[in-house]
Amino acid sequence: MTKTALRIVSWNVNSIRKRIGQLEKLTDAHAPDVICLQETKANDTAFPFEAMRALGFAHIAAYGYGGYNGVAILSKHPLKDVVCHTRRGKRDGRHISAVVRAKNAPPVSVHSLYVPAGGEAPDPRINSKFADKLSFIDCAADYFAAEYGFRDAVVLTGDLNIAPLPSDVWDHHKMQKRIGHTDYDIAALDRLKRSLNWTDAVREIIPPDDPVFTWWSYRQSEFKVDSKGWRLDHIWVSPGLKGSIQSAEVLVDVRHWTPASDHAPVLVKLKP
DNA sequence: ATGTCAGAAATCTTCTGA
Description:
Layout: E1 6-12, H1 20-30, E2 34-38, H2 49-54, E3 59-63, E4 71-75, E5 79-84, E6 95-100, E7 108-114, H3 128-147, E8 154-159, H4 172-175, H5 183-194, E9 199-200, H6 201-205, E10 233-237, E11 245-250, E12 266-270
Helix pairs in contact: 3-5
The protein binds one DNA strand through residues 14-15, 18, 39, 41, 66-68, 117, 119, 129, 161, 217-221, 259-262.
């Protein structure tokens, strides 16, 4: 039998109910095995389980939080050990994980994260939303360091709301005082990256000096989309999977599909 | 400061979050 790559997508949909048609189009175009979603904005009663099953995702793990946040994992392969992660005992719909069990392939732990955006003022001492963002990332780093070893097969995906490299924003100089590209953000993301010696799959494939974006504000005219963006969405792999990265790309054109999310999906293919 | 989406709670619009 032929072994095929595992195709993993991460996408902040900004309401799954508004993006059902686009999820169908995305599935037709790229045949993902697993889609990690963020900002589903749907609790369990509002989540479109049937529509997602109809797209071929028989296995669904969803962790909603009313009309805000919300993460999920859609999978064509069986999922086990689904965990809706809490922080200090509180549910917030920001981190879900499951083990994907594809036939004839070793199991892979997949995480979908939605890191808090962090508000406006770029100083955690006066901006509690920013302090909470940094705290969220530190908690996640502690979790990954405690939960896994470097030999485990783990994929971390999501809207991390941080663009770490100068080439991850359209104007590095202008954005240094903007939340998502401050030294605080970049240091926090670096701590998370060291928690399992993660590899940034997109930057493994695309040279670090090349601009890559996954998010473009709604508050700019259509012609600026493509040029004025940020790379906030990421797919990272554990050291054991680093050699398995076959391809990694941002599906930029999805940002133009209407009605659009303000984020484009990231697609990574892992060799068997 | 502005711009645009989306959801909630309550209207025929305002609020919060991003």
